[in-house]
């Protein structure tokens, strides 16, 4: 059993969903033959019998004039012949957005050739002179979305799919005759060569009134040399009609097949062309085309609710998914996939082995959902819609955008997803600026007196800090509060000889800290909670941006203000709303953009890692032995008990040691994480454990503990032997979770 829930970037899940749905759409749309027209009649009859969705559906027409897509060959960056969805995401998908950079990049199509600029200017001038009352609102580049197309009488949905499929797939999937024609006449056909970007001329998007994506179609235009209005924007009606049909019979978002109560179209001419087609489906078309539209407060992304089979990875829009009847943890599309997973070899990767363990993990769901917040029931639900929760509370800027696929709000400086913030962001405003939303300040003034007792729960911390239990700040503060809990509770319990609570300075290494450094200012709260301690946090990991390597700056509480300075002496004053009585402590921030085993420097007092996932990255097989040699207290969090078991096994393989029994983290994030192929409870920083080093006089790796598996079904027939999870592969290290 292998999962990446809680680790993989949500944007990658969203991309996989789009590719999967679009691939199925293109395949079914392109299925031709002598019975093509009859198939369309059957499809229309089927749609007319579908239940009606009371929500309004919207067909968006989004032209693209200035952005092209460059597709790489694979490991090497640069333009290439194009990649299919399977090759892009593959069976072992990347775990970081930066891994996509060698495959896909976006390039500007403006200003590269003067001739094309002149052509565009002439087109714009002609359109302005001939604009009629039906002209739609212009895009940012000044070009209207409405274009010249064939008349409605020439629209024929059954005859379009083959041409549409070739446009969507590109020259790589075209037939032999088409390929030969493209090679001899590349400029005429408009397909790109290896040096030119692919142009996505138009995006057709079907959503409901809440913003849920129900279908998507991509109109490819070839190279920049063929971005004329006629090459990619012709014959939209057949493409749009096919997209509408597929969106109703196979909606990308959650829910059963259905047809809308009413449909509105975001393009004047396309609206007119669909007037004779949409009624065939038993759908009412709005009297006039849509002029403006914006998602309602219940905005969501379909990826948050479209789940997959654990074995064949088919999405819920393709098959009906049901959980394992015994553990209720893992989703399957049918008995065949369940049995295949049950009988996997070797035994310790089979569901037969894991089923009783997963059932025990599922029993902890209620305990993990026991939190004091007013919104607990919503955010701990299996169907929790994180995007809607954040948007409804105005949490669309600053650090909140790191938690979702939302774009930063207006007026807020931002940095690209996955990149660390520049120092200028840290030197501007109060230390909680990036933690704010669109409404009133989320963080109250720092209490004038330091805490008189140690906090062991969100309830106690919120009461002292003056936070309302309706505040979502726990989602961001889980990181500094977890560090606080390790220092004040766990280290004294497990390593009392260190006497850590009486130390006036602490050097802490935060390992594999790419995501945590993106939220670096949340760690300012440690100065509030531990005002008597001078802290040094060194963020280490090869996921950190190289330009931040060896950066060093200091956050200081100095009287009524806070000062921040970097190693070059630059400083700024930040209002803190608190007063000190002759006590000055600071927080040192250092950055080392390299794997932990390559880090040089003094031995730390403590090592901490968040949502570690030892089995997901080969560098842990070198970093864990380094920690073994240092024998420093090392605490790690995981997003599930399953992850803790996997980490224990990886530690045994890497060092011969193990991990302590995991315990729930009282300062875990309240947001339940989306799980694509299972129903287990996943939360950021859900559990904490520490490394148990192999005794210096001992030798050999201990076996991973676990209950004996039951076998409710007959044993599987013999199969070729495979490496067990605990074995170390030469040149690769531990197995990756899929």
TrEMBL record:
The ranges of region (Disordered) come to 109-193, 698-738
User: Pro residues bias: where?
Assistant: 704-717
Among SUPFAM superfamilies, the record links this protein to:
HIT/MYND zinc finger-like
- Alphabetical list of PROSITE patterns matching this protein: ZF_MYND_2 (PS50865)
Compositional bias per record (Acidic residues), positions renumbered to this chain: 110-143
Q: Where is the MYND-type domain?
A: 309-355
Coiled-coil boundaries? none
Report keywords, A-Z: Metal-binding, Zinc, Zinc-finger
Q: Does the keyword Ligase apply?
A: no
Protein name, entry field: Zinc finger MYND domain-containing protein 15
Q: Source species, please? A: Echinops telfairi (Lesser hedgehog tenrec)
Lineage of this protein's species?
Eukaryota, Metazoa, Chordata, Craniata, Vertebrata
Q: Which gene encodes it?
A: ZMYND15
């Amino acid at each position: 059993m292998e999962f990446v829930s809680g680790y993989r970037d949500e944007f990658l899940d969203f991309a996989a969903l789009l590719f999967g749905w679009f691939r199925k759409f293109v395949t079914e749309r392109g299925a031709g033959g002598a019975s093509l027209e009859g198939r369309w009649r059957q499809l229309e009859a089927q749609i007319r019998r579908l239940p009606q969705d009371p929500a309004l559906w919207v067909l968006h027409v989004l032209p693209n004039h200035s952005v092209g897509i460059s597709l790489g060959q694979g490991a090497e960056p640069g333009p290439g012949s194009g990649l299919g969805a399977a090759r892009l995401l593959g069976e072992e998908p990347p775990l970081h957005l930066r891994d996509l950079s060698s495959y896909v990049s976006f390039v500007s199509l403006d200003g590269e050739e003067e001739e094309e600029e002149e052509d565009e200017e002439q087109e714009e001038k002609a359109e302005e002179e001939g604009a009629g009352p039906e002209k739609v609102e212009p895009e940012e580049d000044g070009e209207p979305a409405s274009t010249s197309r064939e008349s409605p009488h020439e629209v024929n949905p059954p005859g379009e799919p083959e041409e549409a499929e070739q446009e969507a797939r590109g020259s790589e999937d075209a037939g032999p005759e088409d390929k030969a024609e493209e090679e001899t006449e590349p400029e005429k056909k408009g397909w790109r060569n290896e040096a030119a970007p692919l142009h996505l001329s138009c995006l057709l998007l079907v959503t409901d009134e809440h913003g849920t994506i129900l279908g998507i179609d991509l109109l490819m235009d070839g190279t920049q040399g063929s971005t004329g209005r006629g090459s990619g924007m012709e014959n939209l009606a057949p493409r749009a009609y096919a997209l509408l049909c597929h969106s109703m019979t196979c909606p990308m978002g959650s829910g059963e097949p259905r047809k809308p109560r009413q449909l509105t179209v975001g393009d004047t001419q396309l609206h007119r062309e669909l007037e004779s087609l949409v009624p065939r489906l038993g759908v009412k078309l709005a009297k006039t085309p849509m002029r403006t539209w914006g998602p309602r407060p219940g905005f969501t992304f379909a990826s948050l609710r479209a789940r997959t089979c654990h074995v064949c990875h088919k999405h819920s829009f393709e098959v009906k998914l049901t959980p394992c009847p015994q553990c209720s943890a893992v989703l399957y599309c049918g008995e065949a996939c369940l049995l295949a997973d049950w009988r996997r070899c070797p035994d310790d990767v089979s569901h037969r082995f894991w089923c009783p363990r997963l059932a025990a993990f599922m029993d902890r769901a209620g305990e993990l959902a026991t939190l004091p917040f007013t919104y607990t029931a919503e955010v701990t639900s299996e169907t929790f819609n994180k995007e809607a929760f954040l948007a409804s509370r105005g949490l669309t800027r600053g650090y909140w955008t790191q938690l979702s696929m939302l774009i930063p709000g207006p007026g807020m400086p931002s940095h690209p997803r996955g990149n660390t913030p520049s120092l200028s962001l840290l030197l501007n405003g109060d230390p909680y600026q990036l933690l704010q939303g669109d409404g009133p300040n989320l963080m109250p003034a720092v209490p004038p007196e330091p805490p008189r007792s140690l906090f062991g729960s969100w309830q106690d911390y919120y009461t002292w800090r003056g936070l309302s239990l309706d505040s979502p700040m726990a989602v961001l503060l889980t990181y500094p509060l977890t560090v606080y809990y390790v220092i004040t509770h766990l280290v004294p319990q497990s390593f009392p000889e260190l006497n850590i609570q009486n130390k006036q300075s602490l050097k802490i290494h935060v390992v594999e800290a790419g995501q945590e450094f993106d939220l670096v200012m949340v760690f300012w709260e440690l100065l509030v909670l531990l005002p008597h301690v001078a802290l040094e946090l060194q963020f280490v990991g090869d996921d950190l941006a190289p330009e931040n390597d060896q950066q060093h700056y200091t956050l200081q509480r100095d009287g009524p203000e806070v000062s921040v300075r970097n190693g070059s002496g630059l400083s700024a004053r930040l209002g803190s709303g608190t007063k000190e009585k002759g006590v000055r402590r600071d927080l040192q921030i250092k950055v080392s953009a390299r794997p932990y085993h390559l880090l040089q420097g003094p031995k730390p007092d403590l090592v901490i890692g968040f949502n570690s996932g030892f089995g997901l990255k080969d560098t842990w097989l070198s970093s864990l032995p380094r920690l073994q040699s240092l024998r420093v207290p090392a605490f790690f969090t995981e997003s599930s008990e399953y992850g803790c078991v996997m980490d224990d096994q990886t530690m045994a393989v890497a060092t011969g040691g193990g991990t302590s029994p995991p315990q729930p983290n009282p300062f875990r994030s309240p947001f339940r994480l989306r799980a694509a192929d299972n129903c287990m409870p996943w939360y950021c920083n859900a559990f904490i454990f520490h490394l148990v080093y192999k005794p210096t006089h001992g030798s050999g790796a201990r076996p991973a503990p676990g209950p004996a598996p039951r076998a409710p079904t007959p044993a599987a027939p013999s199969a070729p032997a495979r490496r067990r999870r605990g074995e170390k592969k030469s040149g690769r290290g531990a197995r990756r979770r899929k």
